[in-house]
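Cross-posted from the bioinformatics board.
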Amino acid sequence: MTRAEAFSEREVAMCTVAHLVENGRTYWAAGGGTPLYSVLLGQKLYAPDAQYITEDGVVAPEPLLPFEPMMTMVASRAVHHALLWGTMNSAGLHAQLGHMDYGVLNTLQVDQHGNINSTFLGEYGGSGRRFGGPGGADTIAACCWRTILITDQERRKFVKEVDFISSPGFLDGTPGARERAGLPRDTGPWRVVTPWAMYDYEDRRLRLMARVPWVTVDEILAECEWKPLIAPEVQVIEPPTEEELHLLRTELDVRGQTTDAAGSWITWDGEKYVRA
Amino acid sequence: MTRAEAFSEREVAMCTVAHLVENGRTYWAAGGGTPLYSVLLGQKLYAPDAQYITEDGVVAPEPLLPFEPMMTMVASRAVHHALLWGTMNSAGLHAQLGHMDYGVLNTLQVDQHGNINSTFLGEYGGSGRRFGGPGGADTIAACCWRTILITDQERRKFVKEVDFISSPGFLDGTPGARERAGLPRDTGPWRVVTPWAMYDYEDRRLRLMARVPWVTVDEILAECEWKPLIAPEVQVIEPPTEEELHLLRTELDVRGQTTDAAGSWITWDGEKYVRA
Amino acid sequence: MTAPAARRSLPILREGTSAYLKVDPDGFRAYVRDNKQRALTPRLMSAREAVERFVADGDYLAYECNYLMRGPNELVHEIIRQEKKQLWAAGKFTYVDVALLVDAGCVSRADCGFFLSSPPIDRALREGRLEVFEYSNVIMTTRLQAGAMGIPFLPVRSFGGTDGFDHSGAKLITDPYTGDPITIVPALNPDVAIIHVHQADVYGNARVFGTGISDVESALASRKVIISAEEIIETDDIRAKPGATSIPYYAVDAVVHSPHGSYPGTCPGYYGSDPEVVFEIFRAIMTDQVQAYLDKWVRPFATFAEMLNERVGAAKLEAMTAREVAKDGYSA
Amino acid sequence: MTAPAARRSLPILREGTSAYLKVDPDGFRAYVRDNKQRALTPRLMSAREAVERFVADGDYLAYECNYLMRGPNELVHEIIRQEKKQLWAAGKFTYVDVALLVDAGCVSRADCGFFLSSPPIDRALREGRLEVFEYSNVIMTTRLQAGAMGIPFLPVRSFGGTDGFDHSGAKLITDPYTGDPITIVPALNPDVAIIHVHQADVYGNARVFGTGISDVESALASRKVIISAEEIIETDDIRAKPGATSIPYYAVDAVVHSPHGSYPGTCPGYYGSDPEVVFEIFRAIMTDQVQAYLDKWVRPFATFAEMLNERVGAAKLEAMTAREVAKDGYSA
């Protein structure tokens, strides 16, 4: 594997998620974009027997890459050579049955208990701003065994309580809160990945567990409106490799729709990575 | 149409039901045998745009006749050139939605309110005799708009109260009894057809409305353990024609499995029909 | 009937408080009995006639897939052209569609699974021209599934604990079988569904190839159903492969022959999308220029075919077809 | 989360009083998580191995179709040969099967949709070797559908008012949406399902051609799933037509290559039945001679293939295939 010379922050997050992908596990990727590219990257480089499912009920496709612009679902290249073509209901039901190991999501806002907002910023019904709604994320966050969330490391995205729970985390954080709300037992948030950091949960509360080499823990905490717990030993995340970036740029996100969307660029200055 | 010289009692019942078949209506035929042959007879001779559905979710087939022995469902000749191949659940759900105009059933025992027993004769769980169970008849009797029942004219088959309600008629006969049990509104028993007679319902009670020419009302009532109401004018049922019998015998019930099963033969003595 | 009298009751633990389309399985059944054609009578007609006859102001509207992917776009254009009003849209797995229909003046209520947040939506909300009720994509298709089963509600294992739940018609009850809390969501029986398919016969027996969101559920759940089809095929072809039929004729009220009916989106296996026009609609919505889009692509034309002919042209349509190379599986 | 506290409760109006398989959606999920293979690992094995590994004494057994029509007859024979005990059979849309398995000593409980009433059943009931619980064919497949959806129950519009209801696990509750009474029935998640299909790959991706009762629902609802297939096909063939896949591999634990596996019944589109042997099993049951049937057709043989080879012969099997002339629609 070759050290990469330059990459975007969004690319860091996707490569970090790709490293989490395990053989023999199923991944339900929300919508298209970042979650789907991350899983495909992991599958193609590290976990060839990881399988993914989409909201339109496609089981384990072999997509004809690259995708058409904006067409990472339903379109023929995206669903190509799947093992089964289903529907949104079949995908939801297979998840309810427990067949989906991991859900992969991106989001607008996350809170200390892993609750997700993609509906409304501000007081609901008031003068705030409306967003797209949960889409498939609510079911993914409810029914997959473990949820991996991808977001940006920005103050306003890490809050004490989200303005609107679009998709469930650990709700109020008390033991059994999900079960009391009718959600399946033993499910819930597992990791949050940003371009700077990775988080897990301790007693259903968000905990910083790893950082990229070019950002300090204090810098990360400065970009959290609500401060997470901190693991006794904060690990260092492997930076992207040239192999990963090549695949991402030539086969997956070829038009840069996702990776160009946000964040700084990171470059290797001969001794270390620096953020532009 | 040509006067028939000789036919069996079971053939009379099937031809009588065939005359009830209407164009543009859907018929859910229970199992195979008598109900299915009756509907096919009506469709082929009188109502070419009547459609039927089977318990395995076959919509409007053009069966390759004759059927294989015992194979009036699921088998390839029976489901041939349907408009849609479904499942037992799809058939049930389409019926729940109100798409099935008529259900056609045969049964062991029927009572004054059209309730059907096909499970147990005697006190349930006691020393009586077990039968096959409702099969698909329960759903047909619950969800089709109108139910047509085919049975034999025997004392023990027409009772005050069936020993076990396998499939619902008007239950206790009070207004709204079906609705109070969760069944769809405005559905229920419509006709009972035997080789001797046809019944309808008045205020949810069985009523003799027609008889075949060679049997009197008194003879019919003698073969009812519980006496039905009697219509002010009991009509006379048209006997089978040669055309009907030809179709029945050469294309439908070719092995006589159904028509040979029970009942006397009726012959034309030159002046009238007589029962052997 | 000797079961003991009921001794128990099930507490309702929590209830959403928002409006939802009335749940009425028996009313739906009566509508089916009185209005749906169980006869095999042809129901092929123009988009204009289908929308005139089967889309009424105030209807709850379900559409399948979205403007960019196997959307019933000829029918969407016709709804806009006929200036239907006060529609309530099932905004599941949608993208530009809700904003388009809101800004066109057709939609004033939307159940939200997901739709593009955008200036036309924001303006309509601010001006009180739009009400939104909160669900998710799967909860919306679950509601359609309940509607397609003829039952009043379905239990689900998601949605509980969200704020969407509180702004919806969901309820949390005690499951009488396990004693655990379980969410139930109300059945959805739209007044009208518009569905674009690959093939249909003149009676409405329809085939969808590839994946979908809830084509079959929408067709069975809706009082009125308009199918638009790329190809009208013979009923004998339907009968030669009954396993390929997705939607039975008795659920369908109108069949519209609509080649390239998903333009500018893709109809998977048949043709790809027109990326620059896809981007044009996206940009029009995000820059609040929907009226200009409608004045260019919808309002000047009497029919969708006229638009395809005059504004797109045969060469481009052929190129879209040629570009669709992933064809395995898109046939009966 | 500001919804008002619950003020209402739903009375249970009536409850069936019979035993039913425990409803446990979370337990089912945990079983799936810990036992089902989401990896694409081959799971092809002999009928003997599949039944040894995946059918245990005391299991609730679902089988699809029946002995005479696309029945999983190689697997049924193997269950009899291995003398499995105390099985609880899902007796929906069945005919001779329950009587056969009861008299073979394998089944001691049965949920009844329909099965042939016959001397072996009567004797077993009299001698206390068999308990029967009352449903109907559709109610049984509805229960499987609930099990396949991962939910604890489903509402239905039938079954209410019958005596079967009182001898079942059904309940009549007040629908919170309409205020009307509605029947709910408990989900069924069998311990094991045996399903005969036309084609499958070595991972269990399976295709059923033609109609069925509840093949897909049984596969998804059951903890352990054994598929027997007329043909083992390449996964590349599965991928070339994903719309033809009925059952996904992750629901399947074992795949058995079982040509002519529905003998003496028909596998629609592939071969017709053997009418004289069909009549032989029917007669054996109605005359209480099941043991003689088993001694002739099951017990002398180590495998189903051996039985086909020695007792039926290639010529007869070929004739059954030739006799199956209604072939339209039985392919991907």
